[in-house]
């Protein structure tokens, strides 16, 4: 039985403008309708190449969704049979996932694209945080303490954040208090276990970085890093299930012997933000918690950001 | 006594369009005329800030020219007194320096620039190798075996090289045979001693990279990495004097808590090219030396590229 998933956070993976939505089954597979024009075939070409590329080391391969080929299935909008990419379901198989979709790169266009596409991306990169930060948050959902309370700001609101605001959002992502409460500063309770540690998000991003410093096969234009974990497990004291997955390969081009310096630079910027949260717990009180001086003392105690 | 230096390789540091040229003295100082508009004052502001910034570690500081303040001196074109930056003379104090000026970054413009400047740079970055490689060679001079024979291609000819051509030029830079000889493939004789080793160019670039992964104070837009060494010393079996220096800070902007992901990405691309020359000596024969099959055997023996 296929159904429309609950937890899609980034814009173009939702059903809109009459386009069919992705589907999931109960066996952990995610069915992504092939995009029109050549984007769909480009994404299939990337997954086919990547999944059969024996030079990709296992610790890098696990940062990409598993590819199960393509399948002709009934589209979610009732428009009939349509080819779908069949992928590992990274998000929807979880019960209450907190998810952040970060589009990497200060530039989302690439020389091989059409002039029209280049100009549109050039404009959007300048209008969002892509140009300044080297990435933009494309989508976001964070659960609060109670499972049912979900903070899911509109994508437009998070695409053009300042450096200071991005840091706050990255702190909210790993805090126990409810992210949408203006009277409550992020306590960073889960920073050490979600971002830090040998299997945490930072460690996974550093493995990705090392690969991008070396690989010259793929340029992952306009691709996203998805960060996922379940706060519920943290609250129960369970081991962190934090995961990094790269998604959206409709604009991948050949590396032709050159590293993807655009992706690498943006990735290093994300890494720097997350590293700072882990290594500068003081900032939790000095910058973010300035509003309420009484609370600073407690918050600084809660800032369990001892680093990796 | 001030004089016009012999060894300026990049375009805008030469006298042209009626602009005065830089000057040198015999005490190892380089006098750079302050550029008109706000570029001159921006460069002074950068050198003042950087030279007094106590957070810059010594191993990074030595990759920048020493700053000796500004001085009002007679311009080289006889146009009268003009303020000059007084800097360490990196190149001209050497007798026969081989020099490569690499402008780092796939983007030479920045959000704070004027729309006119942005559009001009955007166009030039696309027309040169900056966009694809993450850098462009801005100027180049390589000495041959005999001191007097100098290969100094026009800057326009080296700004838009393909990945394969950049690799050839980087090999020519560290080869004993004359770089302009079409019948002679680069032998990479000096690769290990100039690029490799604990004090070689790659080691210096890696120190720079580590700093750029962390520092969020300066964005070095449109800045160059200069690589310099004297082939004569290599031929005499002396220790390599290979040096990396960053130059041209007329477009530096404040980092505002964000790493310079554009510079970092481009720098990583340069590092990858140089690493490959050090770690893949075979390629010297398979790709570059294909033209003359008889010579391949000899060349592969000469490829002393054992890595660091």
Briefly characterize the structure:
With 308 residues, chain A is of the alpha+beta class. The first copy, chain A, has twelve helices and eleven strands.
Q: How is the secondary structure organized here?
A:
2 copies of one chain form a homodimer.
Chain A: E1 23-24, E2 29-33, H1 39-51, H2 58-61, E3 67-74, E4 81-88, E5 97-104, H3 115-127, H4 130-133, E6 135-143, E7 150-151, H5 155-158, H6 163-172, H7 191-194, H8 201-212, E8 218-220, E9 224-230, H9 231-235, E10 243-247, E11 252-254, H10 261-279, H11 282-286, H12 293-302
Helix pairs in contact in A: 8-10
Overview of the structural elements:
Chains A, B: It comes from Salix purpurea (Purple osier willow). Chains A, B: This is Inositol polyphosphate multikinase. Chains A, B: GO terms for molecular function: ATP binding; inositol tetrakisphosphate kinase activity; inositol-1,4,5-trisphosphate 3-kinase activity. Chains A, B: Its EC number is 2.7.1.140, 2.7.1.151. 2 copies of one chain form a homodimer. Chain A is an alpha+beta fold. The first copy, chain A, is built from 12 helices and 11 strands. In chain A, the strands form 3 sheets. Chain A has a 5-stranded antiparallel β-sheet. A 4-stranded antiparallel β-sheet of chain A has the order 1-2-4-3, covered by helices on one side. In chain A, strands 8-11 form a two-stranded antiparallel ribbon. In chain A, strand 3 and strand 4 form a beta hairpin. The longest helix of chain A has 19 residues. The first copy, chain A, is globular. The termini of chain A are far apart. Chains A and B meet through helix 4 and helix 10 of A and helix 4 and helix 10 of B.
